[in-house]
Amino acid sequence: MRIAIIGSGGVGGYLGGRMAKAGYDVTFLARGEHLKAMLLNGLAVRSIRGNFSIDNVKATDTVTELKGMDLMLISVKAWQVKEVAREIKSLVSENTIVMPIQNGVSAIDELKEQIPSEKIVGGLCRIFSKIESPGVINHFGIEPIVEFGEIDGTLSERISAIKELFDQSGITAIVSANIVADIWKKFIVNCASGLLAVAKSTYGQIREIKETRQLMEDLFTEIYNVSQKAGINLESNFVLKTMALIDTYPYDSTSSLTRDIWAGKPSEIEYQNGMVVALGEKFGIKTPINRMVYHCIIPMELKARGKL
Q: CA-to-CA distance for 267 and 193, rounded, in angstroms?
């Protein structure tokens, strides 16, 4: 199986590194100093599950070199999905599988605008990781888990093949019977990232203070209410389960969105709390906490994008 990692940051770099280490034919789409370092020195992964490195990395910044791939793992930022869809449209062959794993709930629909829906499977990844320096990925929190499945919930031959790929690569993988609902579950959790950014706090700090813990729970409740109007099948106690999950996160951990905002970089805020606000307006659901978080971050986001 020939695999393209489109977006070789903390998530794509880690997963692609595991696959390459297992002997699979992996090509990384990267750019800038990160690409240069990978081509010169290989890819190093520092992980709580054990460090490893890949020599003779196959990497490029030219999308057209990814033609004929069996699996395209899309791990770019949420706002980059539409552009990626246009770029890979002509490269998707009869046997190509396209799997988006970024944050948010819109990636599948955005890919469908350019790519036949039958080429797409849904996916997500739970991991705390980042580019520590060019050519170096740091996996610093939680056991990495990939969840994926056919959009209609069927168990197909290609899903079984992808499961074997992950298993052979030492990546914990779960085949989902309702990947759309599972994507929403992760979406709800991720939207705490904006609150962390506004409060300038880690998960541990947010959860241990009574007032901010309640804010986080109420933020999750708003999104759960939106999900029900959207017809997403989530269990009624999902918010409480989400709070319990947050309690297991490393005390000093933060999310990529949080770190991007603190660093003055463009973030996925439009695809997280901003999306909650937009969907709340669409379905007539009030989302005051998500609105507050989103509106507080808008000035920082405009500055990061050179629009303010």
A: 11
Secondary structure element (H or E) that encloses residue 131, with its range: strand 122-133
Q: Which amino acid does the sequence have at 40?
A: L
Per residue in 271-300, pLDDT (tens digit) is 999 999 999 999 999 999 999 999 999 999
Give residue for tokens 């599988």.
Answer: 97
Is the pTM higher than 0.90? The answer reads yes
Mean pLDDT in residue range 11-16:
97
For residue 96, how many other CB atoms are within 10 A of its CB? 20
- Residue holding tokens 């320096």? 133
DSSP letter (8 states) at residue 133: E
The answer on pLDDT for 268 being more than 90 is yes
Fold of 185-304: N-(1-d-carboxylethyl)-l-norvaline Dehydrogenase; domain 2 (1.10.1040)
In this structure, how many other beta carbons lie within 10 angstroms of the beta carbon of residue 200? Answer: 10
Is residue 53 classed as helix, strand or coil in its secondary structure? Answer: strand
Cβ-proximal residues to 236 (8 Å cutoff; 6+ apart), any chain: none
Contact assessment for residue 299 and residue 197, using Cβ atoms and an 8 Å cutoff: no
Architecture of domain 2-177: 3-Layer(aba) Sandwich (3.40)
What number of other Cβ atoms are within 10 A of residue 140's Cβ? 17
Q: Write out the two tokens for 141.
A: 């929190």
Q: Which two tokens mark 93?
A: 């062959």
